[in-house]
């Protein structure tokens, strides 16, 4: 189960102020291209799921998200992930981009945990189409207590979104998670960084053409 604190930064200035507060130089920086797929029966969407192919650093990671919810700046979802051969993933994306028909997954993907789970939960699914794609730059910073803050600049065709994410699924007790969230909020307020709890996933922003 993935559990994240998710705050939307209100504009580019807040994004810059946050990066400055975190020291300016990230420990990691990734340029990510995200492609989302939809199935022939729209079953993933109806069950609050999503299938994403993410390309970065000459790699491709397929992620199945299930039961995604966001409340009060806390996002939770079940995630299943598989790294796949980059050439095969690119070929599949090209097939999806060049076709108006639903496509079967490559045979090479049959043994992946992601598609085994989909076959188990939704055996009716027989094909896939490209729902859409967007890109983002992710900068990763050390924060405190060995926790990492990820700062995202996401480019949609209708605008740019700025967001911070902090994974806390490794923190077992709810009161400890609440304390981490409180400490983060206090740091943002002390540094006059304007933010609000994220209300929607990046995919929902993309579909609704509205950044929440």
Automatic annotation (TrEMBL):
InterPro entries: CYTH-like_dom_sf, CYTH_domain. It comes from the Eukaryota. GO terms for molecular function: pyrophosphatase activity. Residues 1-210 form the CYTH domain. This is Triphosphate tunnel metalloenzyme 3. It comes from Anaeramoeba ignava.
């Amino acid at each position: 189960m993935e559990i994240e604190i998710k705050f939307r930064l209100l504009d580019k200035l807040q994004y810059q102020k946050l990066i400055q507060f975190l020291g300016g130089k990230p420990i990691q920086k990734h340029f990510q291209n995200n492609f989302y797929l939809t199935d022939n029966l729209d079953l993933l969407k109806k069950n609050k799921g999503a299938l994403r192919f993410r390309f970065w650093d000459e790699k491709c990671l397929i992620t199945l998200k299930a039961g995604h919810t966001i409340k009060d700046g806390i996002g939770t979802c079940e995630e299943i992930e598989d790294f796949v051969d980059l050439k095969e993933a690119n070929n599949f994306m090209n097939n999806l981009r060049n076709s108006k028909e639903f496509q079967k997954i490559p045979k090479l993907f049959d043994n992946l945990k992601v598609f085994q789970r989909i076959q188990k939960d939704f055996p009716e699914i027989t094909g896939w189409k490209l729902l859409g794609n967007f890109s983002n730059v992710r900068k990763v910073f050390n924060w405190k207590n060995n926790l990492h803050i990820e700062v995202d600049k996401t480019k949609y065709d209708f605008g740019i979104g700025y967001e911070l994410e902090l994974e806390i699924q490794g923190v077992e007790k709810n009161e400890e998670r609440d304390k981490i969230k409180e400490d983060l909020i206090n740091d943002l307020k002390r540094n006059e960084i304007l933010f609000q709890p994220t209300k929607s996933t990046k995919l929902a922003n993309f579909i609704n053409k509205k950044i929440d």
